[in-house]
Design goal:
The complex is a heterodimer of chains A (114) and B (116). Helix content of chain A is 0%, strand content 54%. By secondary structure, chain A is mainly beta. The termini of chain A are far apart. Chain B is mainly β and 116 residues long. In chain B, strands 2, 4, 5, 6, 9, 10 and 11 form a 7-stranded mixed β-sheet that branches. Chain B has a 4-stranded antiparallel β-sheet with strand order 1-3-8-7, with no helix packed on it. The chains are: A mainly beta (114), B mainly beta (116). The interface between A and B is medium-sized, with 18 and 23 residues.
Chain lengths: 114, 116
């Protein structure tokens, strides 16, 4: 079965420090991987995606993610966190098996402390 | 970029009444739209997939008679919560697939439903 795991419910980091939000996946076939961010009472905003090509993907607001096929991971990273990065982050995998379905991880809440 | 709107952004209704939520793709045609439900501090759960002009496909455990979905045009899908109960209170998010463009999925801002 297709699945996405975000092992951390919450990540705390000090402003200016690097941050990592972890994601692992399990799919059959080649994965389409995504990161989204959600602010309170808002919908999801697209951050970045991996479809094919370079394993290091750069996205919005200085975020990047590295696709690691052997570890089936797609961790989200940022070199220097901002307080405004505090939000809920979702990793997602898209499967295209006769239908088009996006499966979301449980979400990781990021707190960046000033 | 592509924009998906939802209306209303929040709604309060009494138990037993029905409420309709609209989802519109503003600058692209969406042959497929998705409805998600999100409980506090939880992930998005796909409720149903709707294709323009055909019946929606509901995920297991979602009552199709309670959550009526209509996708009458390439830019509009509606979700009607019928005979709402307090346990239907949730954040509902729609998403639209841009088939003509880069085949991406765009999300609406969500609708907060509170049933009293």
């Amino acid at each position: 079965a297709q699945s996405v795991a975000q092992p951390e419910d919450q990540v705390n980091v000090a402003e200016g420090n690097p941050l990592t939000v972890k994601c692992t996946y399990s799919v059959s076939g080649n994965p389409y991987l995504f990161w989204y961010v959600q602010y309170p009472n808002r919908g999801l905003q697209f951050l970045l995606k991996y479809i094919t090509g370079d394993n290091l993907v750069k996205g919005s607001y200085g975020f990047e993610a590295e696709f690691n096929k052997s570890q089936t991971s797609f961790h989200l990273k940022k070199p220097s966190a901002l307080v405004s990065d505090s939000a809920l982050y979702f990793c997602a995998v898209r499967v295209d098996t006769g239908g088009f379905k996006t499966i979301f991880g449980a979400g990781t809440r990021l707190f960046v402390k000033a | 970029g592509a924009v998906v709107s939802q209306h209303p952004s929040w709604v309060i209704c009494k138990s037993g009444t029905s409420v309709k939520i609209e989802c519109r793709s503003l600058d692209f045609q969406a042959t497929t739209m998705f409805w998600y439900r999100q409980f506090p501090k939880q992930s998005l759960m796909l409720m149903a997939t709707s294709n323009e002009g055909s019946k929606a496909t509901y995920e297991q455990g979602v009552e199709k008679d309670k959550f009526l979905i209509n996708h009458a045009s390439l830019t509009l899908s509606t979700l009607t919560v019928t005979s709402a109960h307090p346990e239907d209170s949730s954040f509902y998010i729609c998403s639209a697939r841009d088939l003509a463009g880069v085949n991406e999925q765009y999300f609406g801002p969500g609708t907060r439903l509170t049933v009293t």
